[in-house]
Amino acid sequence: MSATHTLAARLGARARTGGPKDDDRGPELLEHALGWILVVLVAVLVTRAGLM
User: Fold this and answer.
1) pTM for this one?
2) Cystine design at 20: which of 2, 6, 24, 44 (Cβ 3.0–4.6 Å)?
3) 3-state secondary structure string, 1-52?
């Protein structure tokens, strides 16, 4: 086995990148709803301003 394979075996199957953990996801439904509301609001403003 090479040194890379040995190191990967010691560290585990997956190395963490520092991102959020699976249990730190937060209120996803609220984030999605607010995101879509923002998209619709920007689309309405762009249309009303005559930019599209």
Assistant:
1) 0.50
2) 24
3) CCHHHHHHHHHCCCCCCCCCCHHHCCCHHHHHHHHHHHHHHHHHHHHHCCCC
